[in-house]
Structure formats: structure tokens, C-alpha cells
Specification:
This protein is an alpha/beta fold. It has helices spanning about 40-50, 115-120, 120-135, 150-160, 175-180, 195-200, 220-225, 245-250, 270-285, 300-310; strands at about 1-5, 15-20, 30-40, 65-70, 85, 95-100, 105, 140-145, 165-170, 185-190, 205-210, 225-235, 255-260, 290-295, 315-320. The strands form three sheets. Strands 3, 4, 5, 6, 7, 14 and 15 form a seven-stranded mixed β-sheet that branches. It has a six-stranded parallel β-sheet with strand order 10-9-8-11-12-13, sandwiched between helices. α3 crosses α4 and α3 crosses α9 (about 270-285). The chain starts with a strand and ends with a strand.
Length: about 325
């Protein structure tokens, strides 16, 4: 048996309960991983609340790091004792989790368990956003929302390493300092941000906007773009964006809009390793600083969700079994 967080129905954070459940057994090409740390992400709150449909009872979590305890038939790459992480598992809010061998990421020396749990989803997300959803080039101007969030702090650092000019939005003075420490060139509040971006670019607008906030920022994000600029909408922390008339992209300057999701940028083992190896190597070398904003015991998963949804956190939120 093991402890896991279980939601028996959709609802607020209060539906998350600590329960004793049966420990899983690895099937063919699967690893049984003893979980050391779990990454908490907004998608977990969407599934818990019913915004994304799931079957109940439901254990959240797709991201974790830990040590391989057992391997199933046919496993050839990993052995018991290996340290691994993943962004593509299920039921991670638990003491043990099953991970498909081809979706397990080796954790290099120099990367601790908390960093390893913080990096897979947000680090790979940052990587595909700036290398694939829109390939940022040196000298381009980028507007990034929520620069003090887990993805935001990683994006700022990776964008500066590419030679981009980074404008970001935050909600508080403390978060402004975090964004500046990460390397942002300009840090704005949300009110009137599109006009400020125009001012900072001599009326031209940003080459690309990375928007994980959604409903509250979407209109301003479009207004902040240059002609033929690209809006990469990768989240909906403030709620889903209403339906869009494509003519609006025309009138805004022949704009581009994309709504990516991580699974479409991890199509094969080669792509998965390219992204994860670059991100983990940057963290191991110290070139990429990963901020763990809050740690909670597994039993306190409800409080972690509440703090995340109320924007009380910065950086990465971690659960510890």
C-alpha cells in the first residue's frame, strides 16, 4: 500500500484528500518509481476542477522525480537505483508512480530531486516555446506574461541566452524583483501593458508574445504585437479565451496565433531527449537557475492548489511525499 492524493469528484481544492491505495506494479516497458518530489502545475487544477474531463476517483499529477525501484519486462535503458524524472506520467501525487520507459528522463549528477521534479514540464515547455512554437532570434523583442511564474523565470533566462530583449508582466513588487533578477529588460504591471510595449518598441510592437494567462491578457497580447507578429497562447491561468473571429488577426496586422501543448512537441524519443538533455544540462551547469517557490507535504496538496490558483506563489510549487 501507499499514500496518494485522491479526488472523488470535481470541485475546489477541498476535494483533494490523502488516501491509502494499492501500490502499482510495473507492466511491460514500465518503471516503478519511488517518488521523491512532485511538480504541481496549473493543468492539475484544471483536471481537479472539472475544466478538463477526467474519470473519478482521480489522482492528479503528471510530473515527478525519484528513483527506479522495479522495472517491468522488456525494460532495457533503466535499472533499479537510477534517478529519473518525467512530465508524462499519471497519478503522480503519490508515494510511487508508474512511468513508461520511453517517457522517463535520466537525471544527471548535480541536479537534486526538487530541481529534477521542477524541470520536466516547465523546462521542456520553455524549450519548445522558444525553439519550436516560435523560434526566437537574437535581437528580437519578446513580451512574456507572468515572468515570475515557474515557466516565466525559466523563459526569461533562456530568452536572454538567445540574445532576445525581454519585456515581462508581473503583479507585485516582489515578483518584479524576481523577474529582474532572472534578467528581464523591462518589467511591467498588467494594466495598460500593450501601450507600454508600443512605447518601448517605438510603436512597432513585440515580435512574439508568450501568454500563459489567457482570458485577462489575450486582447492586450494581440494589441502588443508588431505586424505579422505571433501570439503563442500556452495557458489559461485566468480562464479560457472566448471564441475568436479570424478577421481580428487580419485587422491586427496579419497576426499569427498558435495554441501549443507539450505532447505535440514530444513526438518521439529523439525529440524528448533533445529537449530534456538541453534543459537538464543547463541546470546542472548552473546556467539555468530553477526557483523552487514553495514546498508542501503531500498531505497538503489542497493548500498547494489554493495558493497556486490565488497567485500566492512564484517559481515552482513542489509536493514532497
Amino acid at each position: 500500500m501507499m499514500h496518494a492524493i485522491v479526488a472523488r469528484q470535481a470541485g475546489g481544492p477541498e476535494v483533494l484528500e490523502l488516501a491509502e491505495v494499492e501500490r502499482p506494479e510495473p507492466g511491460p516497458r514500465q518503471l516503478l518509481v519511488k517518488v521523491a518530489a512532485v511538480g504541481v502545475n496549473f493543468i492539475d487544477t484544471y483536471k481537479r476542477s472539472g475544466a478538463y474531463k477526467v474519470a473519478y476517483p482521480f489522482t492528479p499529477g503528471s510530473e515527478a522525480a525519484g528513483t527506479v525501484e522495479e522495472v517491468g519486462e522488456g525494460v532495457s535503458v533503466f535499472s533499479p537505483g537510477d534517478r529519473v524524472a518525467t512530465a508524462e506520467a499519471a497519478n503522480c501525487y503519490a508515494g510511487y508512480v508508474l512511468v513508461d520507459e520511453d517517457k522517463a528522463l535520466p537525471v544527471p549528477r548535480g541536479v537534486d530531486d526538487f530541481t529534477a521534479a521542477a524541470l520536466p514540464l516547465q523546462g521542456i515547455t520553455a524549450h519548445y516555446l522558444i525553439n519550436s512554437s516560435y523560434r526566437v532570434e537574437p535581437g528580437q523583442t519578446v513580451l512574456l506574461h507572468a515572468g515570475a511564474g515557474g515557466v516565466g523565470l525559466l523563459l526569461i533566462q533562456l530568452l536572454k541566452a538567445k540574445g532576445a530583449r525581454v519585456i515581462t508582466t508581473v503583479s507585485t513588487d516582489d515578483k518584479e524583483q524576481l523577474a529582474r533578477d532572472a534578467g528581464a529588460d523591462h518589467v511591467l504591471r498588467y494594466e495598460g501593458f500593450s501601450a507600454r510595449v508600443r512605447e518601448l518598441t517605438d510603436g512597432t510592437g513585440a515580435d512574439v508574445v508568450y501568454d500563459g494567462v489567457g482570458k485577462d491578457t489575450f486582447d492586450g497580447s494581440l494589441a502588443a504585437l508588431r505586424i505579422r507578429g505571433t501570439l503563442v497562447l500556452f495557458g489559461a491561468a485566468s480562464g479560457p479565451v472566448p471564441p475568436l473571429d479570424p478577421q481580428r488577426l487580419n485587422s491586427g496586422g496579419s497576426l499569427y496565433l498558435t495554441r501549443p501543448t507539450i505532447g505535440h512537441f514530444l513526438l518521439n524519443p529523439q525529440e524528448r531527449r533533445w529537449r530534456s538533455d538541453e534543459v537538464f544540462a543547463a541546470a546542472a551547469s548552473g546556467a539555468l537557475s530553477v526557483r523552487i517557490g514553495a514546498r508542501y507535504d503531500l498531505a497538503d496538496a489542497a493548500r498547494a492548489h489554493e495558493d497556486l490558483e490565488q497567485r500566492r506563489t512564484s517559481g515552482k510549487v513542489i509536493l514532497v511525499p
